[in-house]
Design brief:
The complex is a heterodimer of chains A (446) and B (129). The N and C termini of chain A lie far apart (79 Å). The mean pLDDT of chain A is 86. Chain A contains 11 helices and 11 strands. Chain A has a 6-stranded antiparallel sheet with strand order 3-2-1-6-5-4, with helices on both faces. A 5-stranded mixed sheet of chain A has the order 7-8-9-11-10. With 446 residues, chain A is α+β, with helices and mostly antiparallel strands. Chain B is of the alpha/beta class and 129 residues long. Chain B is 36% helix and 20% strand. Chain B has 5 helices and 5 strands, in the order βαβαβαβαβα. In chain B, strands 2-1-3-4-5 form a 5-stranded parallel sheet, sandwiched between helices. The longest helix of chain B has 13 residues. The chains are: A alpha+beta (446), B alpha/beta (129). At the A-B interface, helix 7 of A face helix 1 of B.
Chain lengths: 446, 129
């Protein structure tokens, strides 16, 4: 009988419920008192031993309960950690974003005991786009569903607040999204924002069809997974930007070569063809007509000279010889003198590695070309100065402003500067001039 | 009677030099054209005995222009020219209906008279009964 009572206390406390344990221990002590201590069959607390028994049973119960509680929370923590690790591994391996999204929805759903989990993207034009979904019962808002982000739902709440939140009932809630959720039998939802580059990109949302809402800590769990999604998205975006920039660099190179081939063909090559033809005609006429021969020779000379000029200009456009021979200071001075507006130049006399001098030169050349073409400026300033172990190049003008970094020339410059580990920043409010700053490292990034 | 030649090239310097050279060699310059469209129009107008046709034309290239010219004026002898290549295979010339290829820098020394001097002269539509 004593063993039975002990077993009952241990069994109850192993459930981890503290109140039940205390109740079981006290009642076991009472029954012990009733059956085994004098006076038998009476609930008399006549001896100190009775109290000691009660205390002992209580201690035993509480100890077992604490162990059970701890074990259970350790299990839960291990499950959370496992799920987060699986998703984080996918993110780190740069798995396709859709694979990460699908994994997050399923892992989150199983972990928190939700009926459905959806990843929604809030589009800039005010729609809720379902990116991924998982459901315990195989029914959820299908991927690709696009509904207006209106009405009272967890989606609009998270979008508005940018913070985790919950929605305990969709009964009578207006809006197409809420109607869709009622159809699916979703009673309540919890959501956490997916924040990418400081913007609420979307939300990870878990719903249940049970009358009892998801537990209070669910928001925090969701937030951890939402952060992993944000990382996956910003990784994928950065990767896509890198690929686009590489493609632009390759395309710009191809276009430059095509332009060069065309310029060579239409310019120097045709001039030389004409020179050859004139020389041949002079040869044909040599014996009969001295005047015609002389004219043809002079024309041939003219064509040859024009061809030479064409070649020189082409070579200068590819890499100006003044830059190679006399360095950045002299080359930028020459650029400034050719400019249509007054250009103040402040460039160190020092020599830098050829690829740095070329990058600085082309940034300044492109910027001054833009000033001449678009800015209607009266003056501009070019400054090259040491900055953060590298160089900072600032080009300012007092023109009309309103330049766009996505404009062809500037985007090409940005790609070029970023490819050697630098950065390009544009500040060009309409009507307030333009400031372009390029920063370049002096050590090679690879 | 001098053979009447059409010069087709997008480069004005070449059109001028070629015109002078052809005159020097005893041909009559009947017209010049800067692209395929102008060339077809000029040929339809003047039915030249020969056409000196640049291969590297803007838009439609010289081969395609030659094909159209040969179809429109089968009697016009077409000589392709270019400063980009040294030679064009005979099969390609036959395919587009051209008589010969002469590099731009060989025009003065090539026997243009023989090349332009075909048996039939003028366009078929001009042939009387």
């Amino acid at each position: 009988m004593v063993l039975v009572l002990l077993a009952v206390v241990v069994a109850v406390s192993a459930s981890g419920n503290r109140a039940a344990t205390v109740l079981a221990a006290i009642s076991a002590a009472a029954w012990f008192d009733f059956f085994f201590t004098r006076p038998y069959y009476r609930f008399d607390v006549a001896h100190r031993a009775d109290l000691e028994t009660t205390l002992l049973l209580l201690l035993l119960g509480v100890a077992v309960t604490e162990l059970a509680v701890r074990e259970r929370s350790r299990n839960r923590a291990a499950r959370v950690e496992g799920a987060l690790r699986r998703v984080a591994t996918l993110v780190a391996r740069a798995a396709p974003p859709q694979a990460v999204f699908d994994a997050v929805c399923e892992e989150t759903g199983r972990l928190i005991g939700a009926t459905t989990v959806n990843l929604a993207h809030f589009t800039p034009d005010g729609f809720n786009l379902t990116i991924s979904g998982w459901s315990l019962r195989g029914v959820h808002v299908p991927t690709g569903t696009r509904l207006p982000l209106e009405g009272q739902t967890i989606n609009s709440l998270v979008q508005r607040t940018g913070a985790p939140g919950r929605f305990d009932s969709y009964d009578g809630t207006p809006g197409p999204l809420a109607a869709r959720l009622r159809e699916l039998g979703i009673a309540s939802e919890v959501g956490a924002p997916v924040v990418v580059n400081g913007q609420v990109w979307g939300a990870l949302i878990a719903g249940t069809d049970r009358p009892k809402p998801l537990p209070l800590r669910t928001e925090l769990r969701l937030a951890s997974f939402a952060d992993l999604i944000a990382t996956a998205i910003s990784n994928a975006t950065a990767q896509a930007e890198l690929l686009a920039s590489r493609a632009r660099i390759v395309n710009a190179g191809d276009a430059a070569r095509r332009r060069l081939a065309r310029d060579l063909h239409d310019g120097a090559q045709q001039r030389l063809v004409s020179a050859v033809m004139n020389l041949q005609m002079a040869d044909l006429r040599f014996d009969q007509d001295q005047g015609a021969t002389r004219r043809l020779l002079r024309e041939a000379l003219g064509h040859a000279r024009d061809g030479l000029t064409d070649l020189r200009e082409l070579a200068a456009g590819m890499h100006p010889s003044i830059l190679t021979n006399r360095g950045l200071h002299a080359a930028v001075d020459a650029l400034a003198r050719r400019s249509t507006c007054l250009v103040e130049v402040e460039v160190p006399d020092a020599r830098y590695p050829p690829q740095i001098e070329a990058a600085v030169y082309f940034v300044i050349a492109e910027a001054l070309t833009n000033v001449a073409k678009h800015a209607q400026a009266s003056r501009a300033a070019v400054r090259v100065a040491p900055h953060d172990g590298g160089l900072a190049i600032d080009i300012e003008d007092d023109g009309t402003g309103g330049a766009d970094i996505r404009g062809g020339g500037l985007l090409g410059l940005k790609d070029r500067v970023e490819a050697i580990g630098g950065g390009l920043k544009l500040d060009s409010p309409s009507g307030h001039g333009t400031r372009l700053r390029a920063t370049l490292p002096l050590s090679n990034p690879d | 009677m001098a053979l009447r030649i059409l010069v087709v090239d997008d480069n004005p310097h070449f059109r001028r030099s070629a015109s002078e050279l052809l005159g020097m060699l005893g041909f009559e310059l009947v017209d010049t054209a800067a692209d395929g469209k102008q060339a077809i129009a000029a040929a339809a107008r003047s039915c030249p005995d020969g056409a000196l046709l640049d291969i590297n034309l803007p838009g439609t290239d010289g081969y395609a222009v030659a094909t159209s010219l040969a179809a429109a004026c089968p009697a016009t002898r077409i000589v392709l020219t270019s400063s980009d290549v040294d030679d064009v295979p005979a099969a390609v010339l036959r395919e587009c209906g051209a008589t010969a290829f002469v590099s731009k820098t060989e025009l003065a020394t090539a026997d243009l008279r023989r090349l332009f001097n075909g048996e039939a002269f003028g366009c078929p539509k001009q042939r009387g009964p």
